[in-house]
Design a protein that fits this description.
With about 500 residues, the chain is α+β, with helices and mostly antiparallel strands. It has 21 helices and twelve strands. It has four domains: about 5-235; about 250-345, no CATH class; about 355-420, Nucleic acid-binding proteins (OB fold (Dihydrolipoamide Acetyltransferase, E2P)); about 430-495, OB fold (Dihydrolipoamide Acetyltransferase, E2P). It has a five-stranded antiparallel sheet. Strands 10-9-8-11-12 form a five-stranded antiparallel sheet.
Amino acid sequence: MATIKDITSMCKAGHVAAAYDLARADCDAAPDNVWAQREMGWALYYMIKDDVERNDHQSFYTHLEELSQLSLLNVQDDAFIFDSLLWKFVDIIKQIPVDRTYEMDRIFSFLCNYTFASSVGYSVLLKQTLKFDTWNHLLDFFEWWNIDKLMPEDYHPFQMDNGKKVMALAEQAYIAYSKALLKLNDSDKIRGFVPKIEKLVDDYPDMMYPGYFCGKLLLAMGAEREDALNIVMPFVRKKKTEFWVWQLLAEIYKDDKDIQLACLLRAVHCRTQETFLGKVRMKLVSVYAQRRDYARAKYHLDLMTSCYLEQGWRLPYEAQSWMRETWVNTVQSDATDGLDYRQYTDAILARGANQSIAVVTYVDMTRRRASLIYGERKRVNVPLSNLGLKVKDGTLLELKWFPGNDENIVVAAAKFADKDALKGVSYIRLIKGKISKRDNQAFAFVNGGDVQCFIKPEMVQKHNIRNNDEVTVLAALDYNKGKNSWNWTAVSLTK
């Protein structure tokens, strides 16, 4: 009888068919000999390797069927064979178009008979399988693969050579698992998975999307509104400019019609392609129609139908039904909202938020960011989109916020404030006084009784400031990086 070394040496030398024939003869002669089966296992591995390289899927499945007949082989004792095979499965799956899910059925019918330990190859197998999001057995695959076998490195984003970060495999897997569960709508399986995704949300707060899908799963379970909100709100605040965040909140608030409508309106007011808004428009038509507000219902129905027809899509049955109703042809469409949706939606964002008066100290229009002083020795740089307002240097804001990573904050809501709001605020003040400026200096100061306020050279030049001018400045206790100290600095000035 040949040895495993004989078989593998022949295969590596290119004599795969001869090695297969030799192993086949030994296996036929001693079918209950584990070593003969191991010879055959290695010979079949090299046959499968050639099949993959030649893109010969039919031969691949034939040899896979032969391998499955080797009943004495197992993953634990024959790890080298099966670990090597995992990479061939990865390679063959790469070759399969996403619409040929029947091939995944054949592959999975083999894999599901074995239990693998965590490994790089096992994780890559999962990664390649995720592309088959319409595969009917994807949930079965997840349950076989066992999401608890993700490796520590799978929980971190992958950085490509061009510097772009790719979502962590764990996040991709949890999202795909959630979608498969939602599609099946099996409440028992959802209930079993929710604690896992809740833990992921808690352990990895930087992951953006698990919170959203956790909320969807909780809704599918019929969870209480507060339970769903507690899970999704950190995610919502980070992604509040995305329409589908508000679509989710509209589901959570489905029993509160005004808030539901406000969430749907905020969704369509996000900067989103109309092709993405079909379901939201449909829901708006339904909500307005229930209120007998047919003019506004018609506006959203017209937008939706125009988009669908332009794209060549079939109109949903419900839309076709509306098109036959009398009001569609008798009312004039109304593009107004009929509801101050920002009042309701900002209140959702601000649940449990910190509140403070803030002043804009600098606006960087190139980077679309604003620097704010929002507390005693609290300075932060935030995206202008988070504020949702047109601001400039010296704009006063009433800010609602949550702590973010490091020294950042997450702005929940912002609105303009007036100077009366400065009462009791220690880090922003109005200072009236005379300018102190030397002729050879580009900067200046103004005395405010107990403080001396610095005026930057660009402000001096802009307002043509001279010594002893009477001015009023809006000043903030700002950080001076050069001096590593907090000093009063003018953020706006009037003479």
